[in-house]
Amino acid sequence: MKKYSILAIALLFMACGEADLYDEPQANTTSASSTEEGDEQALERFQYIAVIADTHIVLEDDLQARNLRAIGEVLTQLPVQLLGVFIAGDIVYNLPYHTIEEYHNDPNDRFDIAQAILEEFPAPCYLCIGNHDLAIEKGVPRQMTEQLFMEHFGAAPYYLVDLGVWKFIILNNFHGPTQDPHHPSFDVQTGSLGQEQREWLKRQLNDGRPAILMSHFPPFIINDLSDIFEEYRHNIRLFLAGHSHGWANLSNHFGVPSLIVGTSQLDEDTFMIMELDNKLKTWRIIDWERFHWGSAYSTPWDNSFIEPKE
Questions:
Q1: CB-side exposure of 304: number of CA atoms within 13 Å?
Q2: In this predicted model, what pLDDT tens digit does every residue of 55-86 receive, in sequence order?
Q3: What residues have CB less than 8 Å from 174, skipping those under 6 apart?
Q4: Rounded CA gap, 239 and 283, in Å?
Q5: CATH of the domain at 141
Q6: Does residue 309 belong to any structural domain of this protein?
Q7: What pLDDT does 234 receive?
């Protein structure tokens, strides 16, 4: 499958010059709205996104794959159009191969399976990288996963999704020193952004637009994020994460509301729908009451959760 392969590699060369394919792809900006930036009058007041976490795809017809397909079918039947589907990492569960050539030689590896499922979703899917998408502790360079994400999903290591009024910023908590096996602070259980990504994030936040941030690790195990929360808490409206598998409301973490999204691998009902208000610049989780807090489970979705707007 790997439909992004040729295009993604070409874009990498354009962005990075004469770079090796394992060189770090540059973070990019993706527009999820056809409205020109700043033209808030042309936008609908209310817009909607879906959020999923820890899909853990392995086989074509295992429970995890069936659950993800079922979520896609529900999202297709929503009474509103989604701007995007955001997935908080661990798209696949562990890496069966250690070289890019092995993935390229397998016509139906777990990245292929995930890509095929997500291509049936009714809106663009924006993914971040999780620890099970990597094998850093086994000596597999993270650049291999980053190349696979670009080839299969068109996703850079970290990037901005421009929603018109809102910014959705997808981070990579595996880019800092704690995820570098050669650094003295190496600890696979602790995330870090690294200086380059931190500076990039600050540039994205400097314009004051309301922003939702997402990474795989929750903020309390990312060791270089709290000062950014404190500095930009006026416009970081929400932080979303996965990794812990159970729904968890972290309340105000360093002044920023934070939420861990439950894993879809165990329950086809575990996803959430958010409503973004472009006038008030507020957000609302419209199916909050479905979540079984502290677990990976949720009650079934019903379209009546979305109230008709005048």
A1: 3
A2: 999 999 999 999 999 999 999 999 999 999 99
A3: 129, 131, 134, 136, 142, 191, 216
A4: 12
A5: 3.60.21.10
A6: no
A7: 95
Range of the domain at 52: 5-301
List the strands of the sheet with 282-285, edge to edge.
Answer: 125-127, 82-87, 46-52, 272-277, 282-285
For residue 201, being part of any structural domain is answered with yes
The vertex-259 CA angle with 258 and 262, nearest 5°, equals 165
Q: How far apart are CA 13 and CA 147, in angstroms?
A: 12
pLDDT at 15 (0 to 100): 36
Indicate the helix (H) or strand (E) that contains 162: strand 159-162
Whether 107 is covered by a domain: the verdict is yes
**H helix intervals, 106-243:** 110-118, 142-153, 195-205, 226-232
Q: With respect to residue 264, please indicate whether it lies within any of the assigned structural domains.
A: yes
* Domain count within the chain: 1
CA distance 200 to 118: 28
Give the residue among 261, 173, 280, 161 at the shortest CA–CA distance from 211: 161
